[in-house]
């Protein structure tokens, strides 16, 4: 190659480099996020965003997250989901069963990922764990099974307890199968189970009055946005009625509840980022198996135990992941 050819080749390479730099930035994927409000499980939300960053997704560069907040108004969930559909987002995050149900009603084509669904199979949102079918997949809390384990732990914490009330929301798709599993498990643990349906926060006081009339010694509150939003009030009512309380999310125990037992939501939400990555790269939700929890958290509030005149067995306290003293 002579000098002229060398110069022309170098010029061509320089032009190619400049052209490469001038290329527009790749596609910015749009993630729709349907959730209660920014203050619910902020650690889980941070874990989800970190999971995305670890996979190379940066907000404002190659992804944009469009949030829609229900703000304690479950009747708005479908409207908000439909708004995300109109925005033509690439994927919809619908963390729990009530949001998944709203998103499912809004679209059968846009991929939907749940991050902490209590019972996706029992609620009919998937066909099977191995092959979910349709446009929905995600990570499950396996709450139907976890609630039964929680029932065993409450029985261990309060050995003399003989009757437990279960607060559940008929509008939450995962609650009916969850309640049924508890009703089946109760007798084998020597426990009578009282079903207490609650549809709004205005029914909290009357629900606890019903428990007292039926001589319940404890209360198990199934997890749903309505009860998460009312965590402090539910904890106060359980304490004022001298009822040992068991919840799913630990924020209930921080608010004054006695115990909580649940999968680690932050871990589940972080793992959810990998499902987003797979779908954005072309995978179909129908072919992505629903993932199960691998880490669980037992939290005990000894201050509440003292207020209830309960002595939690030391063997159980030693197994707790977190103890509030």
Give an overview of the whole structure.
The chain has 325 residues and is of the alpha/beta class. The protein has two domains: 29-140 and 265-294, Rossmann fold, CATH 3.40.50.2300; 143-263 and 297-324, Response regulator (Rossmann fold, 3-Layer(aba) Sandwich), CATH 3.40.50. It has helices spanning 3-22, 42-54, 77-86, 97-106, 143-157, 175-185, 204-213, 225-229, 231-240, 251-254, 265-280, 302-307, 314-319; strands at residues 29-35, 63-69, 91-93, 112-117, 136-140, 163-168, 192-197, 218-221, 244-247, 259-263, 296-301, 322-324. The strands form two sheets. It has a seven-stranded mixed beta sheet, sandwiched between helices. Strands 2-1-3-4-5 form a five-stranded parallel beta sheet. Strand 6, helix 6 and strand 7 form a beta-alpha-beta unit. The longest helix has 20 residues, at 3-22. The protein starts with a helix and ends with a strand.
């Amino acid at each position: 190659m002579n000098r002229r050819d060398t110069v022309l080749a170098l010029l061509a390479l320089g032009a190619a480099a400049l052209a490469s730099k001038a290329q527009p930035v790749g596609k910015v994927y749009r993630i729709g996020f349907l959730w209660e409000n920014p203050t619910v499980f902020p650690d889980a939300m941070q874990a989800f965003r970190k999971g995305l960053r670890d996979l190379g997704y940066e907000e404002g560069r190659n992804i944009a997250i469009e949030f829609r907040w229900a703000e304690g108004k479950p009747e708005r969930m479908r409207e908000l989901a439909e708004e995300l559909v109109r925005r033509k987002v690439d994927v919809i995050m619908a963390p729990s069963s009530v949001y998944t149900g709203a998103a499912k009603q809004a679209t059968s084509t846009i991929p939907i990922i749940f991050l902490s669904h209590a019972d996706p199979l029992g609620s009919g949102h998937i066909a099977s764990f191995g092959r979910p079918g349709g446009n929905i997949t995600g990570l499950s809390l396996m709450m139907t099974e976890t609630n039964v384990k929680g029932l065993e732990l409450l029985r261990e914490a309060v050995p003399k307890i003989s009757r437990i009330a279960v607060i559940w929301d008929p509008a939450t798709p995962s609650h009916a199968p969850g309640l049924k599993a508890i009703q089946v498990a109760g007798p084998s643990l020597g426990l009578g189970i009282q079903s207490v349906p609650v549809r709004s926060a205005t029914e909290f006081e009357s629900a606890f009055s019903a428990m007292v009339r039926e001589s319940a010694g404890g209360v198990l509150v199934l997890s749903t946005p309505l009860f998460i939003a009312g965590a402090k009030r539910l904890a106060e009512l359980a304490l004022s009625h001298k009822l040992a309380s068991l919840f799913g999310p630990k924020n209930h125990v921080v608010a004054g509840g006695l115990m909580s037992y649940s999968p680690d939501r932050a871990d589940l939400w972080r793992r959810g980022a990998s499902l987003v990555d797979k779908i954005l790269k072309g995978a179909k939700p129908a072919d992505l198996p629903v993932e199960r929890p691998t880490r669980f958290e037992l939290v005990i509030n000894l201050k509440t135990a003292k207020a209830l005149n309960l002595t939690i067995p030391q063997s159980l306290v030693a197994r707790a992941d977190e103890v509030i003293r």
